[in-house]
Hints:
The structure is a single chain. By secondary structure, the protein is an alpha/beta fold. Helix content is about 40%, strand content about 20%. The chain has ten helices and eight strands. Helix 9 (about 205-220) links the parallel strand 7 (about 195-200) and strand 8 (about 230). The protein is globular.
Amino acid sequence: MIEGTYYKEWSPTLGRDMEFKVFGHRGCPVLALPGRGGRFYDWEDQGLVAACAPLLHAGKMQLFCADGLDGEGLLDADLPLRRRAEMQEEYFCYLTRELAPRILELNAAGGKTPKTSLWCAGVDIGAYQAVNCRLRRPALFTGAVGLSGLYDLHRFAQGQEIARDDLWLRNSPTEYLHKDGLTDKTLLAQAKPDQLTLCAGQGPYEQDALADTQALAQLLQAQGLPVHLEVWGYDVAHDWYWWGRQWNLFAERLFGQQGKEE
């Protein structure tokens, strides 16, 4: 078992307190995002913190588990479409303009020199949030891991047209990758494939995530942008058990070679 440090801090962007929990004391910082309707404690409660515990203990990685707000934005079908897009953009701004700098500050306090290699990872809608952060802010986020992600925002628009709304466009990877000027494709093209790792299974309740994951990978490849895609077996379901196994594998692969604690 690994103990975490709890934070509750005011967000000027969101106009509310936001909670997050930190595990580990140094190493590569990773912003961890929950699934739909999820909270900051889901990664801990569902075993994903334990899945990377050896890396946390060894000082190779530091995990920052954030709260989600999709229940008040993308998933709230009672809100007007524009307001849902505004909530998503506000949450994106919170992650990139407030929480990310705070993560780097806390991470630097645990080591001799600041760590500038910030990653993000997520499951389900959290995978979408992580990948959206990486694609829209590649100078800030070195890489992302998306497990069973839902990347086509048409799924949440109840059949309404979103391409003409600037905020929906800016937050939909399957839309903005077709455009120029909405993301730094030159910088993204310089990355290694595993700096954007996408994974989905072929088992129960993975159909939408599998379709979106494969479609996003194909779109990235067509744009000449590196991506590492893994499609797991027919027994791999859309649930925390499998995300824990995937995260254990990918975390070790991506961060296991980080310098050992001095």
